[in-house]
């Protein structure tokens, strides 16, 4: 009897072929992918039916149809960022400039000189041009690149610690948590380093570092508080003092800068100054680590720059090969670095790097773009004063003046993300790329 009931329940399962035939016609995905997805979705429905749950065929087909729609929408594709947040992590962080994107396309669709020396025809060095250009840009002895900033920290720690000399000194006020719940102590543990905490959350003195140094100390690590800030009764040693201390004890001083601002942010917009790699190196930091896809405005990458002997030691670490970037990341970052050097020669070319251009937008330009946007949407709207933010775990104290088109109803535009305040949709034209505004 039980088996008969189970068979009756299973009769509610739709035909895979018929359902895939219908859904494939409504989808932009290959039929084989739709069919495979349907089969995977049917498994939990089958288990529920076998457990005695009563489900109709319509309920099952509706559930699978909704799941396929959600699955198809998760495919990476362009979206409209009307939030006013420049480096929106959920929306892909910094957009690439057209010149860099075209260079990636050219390299990706052709063979390239990834590890060939075009002058000799012999085997070349991967990323040689980029490393040299980066070192010149940030005024470092040497530089190298891995696939993200967290990897650059793990790699650096693995390369600079040794058996019996694996202690890494970090201020308690810098034990930050980055995106996804990853914390600096966890990263240190993963690398094999032993964390030595010094100071208090709000204050760390030079003597705290000095008292923590032993013959087991591998390095002193500074971590820039890029996604939060301390205020009030706070204090920390000057970098020059910390460098003198590290030099006296012959241990490296390393800083994880995170955000990677290469220009004076406070000169681009009325926001806080973000430490630049070249500034920190000039103050005594011997290695700086920073991201490629935040304030730098390039692809996801982790950049390591500083003392040549330390960079070379890092590149000899076996883990280096596991986190090296591919030709597309190298090309994108290479072209963004060239853009920065072009801007250094001619500051009017700031438009080459979209993040910099968006930061530098004048109130007049924003109002003109907002008025143009207002004409293109059918919903009743008004232009209002608002604020923007850099986002991406950078400059937590800073919001800057902006304008937005405010409307009660979200415009019927595909994949448009707005900022909702008081049940009103705000569309900030600052973060809408030119083709998107059209």
Automatic annotation (TrEMBL):
Enzyme Commission number(s): 2.9.1.1
Family matches, as HAMAP family: SelA
Protein localization: Cytoplasm
A GO term, aspect molecular function: L-seryl-tRNA(Sec) selenium transferase activity
Main subcellular location of this protein, as a coarse class: cytoplasm
Catalytic reaction equation(s): L-seryl-tRNA(Sec) + selenophosphate + H(+) = L-selenocysteinyl-tRNA(Sec) + phosphate
Keyword Cytoplasm annotated: yes
Keyword vocabulary terms for this entry: Cytoplasm, Protein biosynthesis, Pyridoxal phosphate, Selenium, Transferase
Record-given protein name: L-seryl-tRNA(Sec) selenium transferase
Function: Converts seryl-tRNA(Sec) to selenocysteinyl-tRNA(Sec) required for selenoprotein biosynthesis.
Residues carrying N6-(pyridoxal phosphate)lysine: 294
Source species: Roseibacillus persicicus
Region (Disordered): 419-438
Record-linked InterPro entries: PyrdxlP-dep_Trfase (IPR015424), PyrdxlP-dep_Trfase_major (IPR015421), SelA-like (IPR018319), SelA_trans (IPR004534)
Cofactor(s) it depends on: pyridoxal 5'-phosphate
Gene: selA
């Amino acid at each position: 009897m039980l088996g008969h009931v189970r068979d009756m329940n299973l009769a509610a399962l739709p035909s895979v072929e018929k359902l895939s035939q219908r859904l494939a016609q409504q989808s932009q995905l290959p039929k084989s992918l739709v069919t495979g997805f349907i089969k995977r979705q049917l498994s939990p429905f089958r288990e529920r039916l076998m457990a005695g749950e009563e489900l109709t065929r319509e309920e099952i087909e509706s559930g699978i149809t909704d799941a396929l729609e959600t699955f198809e929408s998760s495919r990476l594709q362009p979206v409209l960022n009307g939030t006013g947040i420049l480096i929106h992590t959920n929306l892909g962080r910094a957009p690439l400039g057209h010149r860099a994107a075209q260079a990636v396309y050219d390299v990706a669709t052709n063979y390239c000189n990834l590890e060939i020396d075009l002058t000799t025809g012999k085997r070349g060095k991967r990323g040689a041009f980029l490393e040299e250009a980066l070192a010149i840009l940030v005024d470092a002895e040497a530089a190298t690149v891995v696939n993200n900033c967290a990897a650059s920290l793990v790699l650096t720690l693995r390369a600079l610690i040794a058996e019996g000399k694996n202690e890494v000194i970090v201020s308690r006020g810098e034990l930050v948590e980055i995106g996804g719940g990853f914390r600096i102590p966890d990263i240190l543990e993963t690398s094999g380093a032993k964390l030595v905490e010094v100071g208090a959350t709000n204050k760390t003195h030079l003597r705290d570092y000095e008292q923590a140094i032993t013959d087991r100390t591998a390095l002193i690590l500074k971590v820039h508080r890029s996604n939060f800030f301390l205020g009030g009764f706070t204090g920390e040693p000057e970098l020059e003092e910390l460098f003198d201390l590290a030099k006296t004890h012959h241990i490296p001083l390393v800083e994880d800068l995170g955000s990677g601002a290469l220009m004076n942010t406070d000169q681009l917009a009325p926001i806080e100054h973000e430490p630049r790699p070249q500034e920190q190196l000039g103050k005594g930091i011997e290695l700086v680590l920073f991201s490629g896809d935040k304030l730098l405005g390039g692809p996801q990458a982790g950049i390591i720059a500083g003392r040549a002997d330390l960079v070379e030691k890092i590149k000899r670490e076996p883990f280096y090969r596991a986190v090296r970037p591919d030709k597309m990341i190298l090309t994108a970052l290479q072209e963004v670095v060239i853009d920065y050097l072009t801007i250094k020669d001619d500051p009017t070319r700031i438009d080459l790097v979209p993040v910099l251009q968006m930061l530098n937008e004048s109130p007049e330009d924003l109002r003109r773009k907002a008025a143009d946007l207002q004409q293109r949407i059918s919903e009743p709207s008004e232009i209002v004063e608002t604020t923007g933010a850099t986002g991406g775990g950078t400059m937590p104290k800073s919001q800057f003046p902006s304008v937005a088109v405010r409307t009660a109803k979200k415009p019927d535009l595909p994949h448009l993300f707005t900022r909702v305040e008081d049940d009103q949709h705000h569309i900030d034209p600052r973060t809408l790329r030119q083709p998107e505004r059209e």
